[in-house]
Write the structure tokens for this entry.
Amino acid sequence: MRRVGWVLRSGLFVLWMAATVVPYGIAMVLLSIFVRGTRLYWPTMGWLRLTVWGARMICGVRHRMHGMNNLPTAADSHAAVLLASKHQSTWETFAFPTLMPHPLAYVFKRELLYIPFFGWAMGRLDMIHIDRSKRNEAWARVAAQGKRLFAEGIWVIMFPEGTRTPRGGQGIYKSGAARLAIEAGVPIVPIAATSARCWPRRSFLLRPGVVDISIGRPIASNGRQADELMREVEAWIEAEMRRLDPDAYRS
């Protein structure tokens, strides 16, 4: 019976997302004709707030923050950092822009731009979309746009594993985030997130519970080698994941 309840509530949540994304997507595309930059970013994040709120109210998915004091404050308008996060679920991609005190720029595959309404609005924001089939061209785009965004005080967020991992799993940490941080001269902030506890990858069956998000201290990138820097980021994230969600790593 409990699983049936999860299915029904998850179905209602999917309907909630579908019903709200259409008017929001259209409104943000129209608004982008007149305003861009951060003046467009914050209104667009309104749909993500609705989604995170819907996950909490409909499916019982709550969150708990740790280490927010490790981030530059909203008053530090040009204190740029690169956020490198564990990636287990769709939940954190929706939640992070609503939780961070600065505008975020995701690095994402351009195929997401083709999603009706959601992708259309996302394409009007100042983010970094890449063609993964053209690796050299993709890196040049990430480096150029990343440095420009950092100079404007916008935080770039990347998922070093590249794709969502199952609860208790660990992907291969790629060095792209470390390379960008070194080239731009900004620190990396590692983030652990236990979102698969409530919203597993490749699933729309949400379970009630608490997503723990832990933000580590900034790791300086000056004078570092990309692989060595990423190993430090990986070590912190994976150790923190095991502290936050020990049941998932018992094996």
About this structure: The mean pLDDT is 90. Residues 91 and 195 are 6 Å apart (CA to CA).
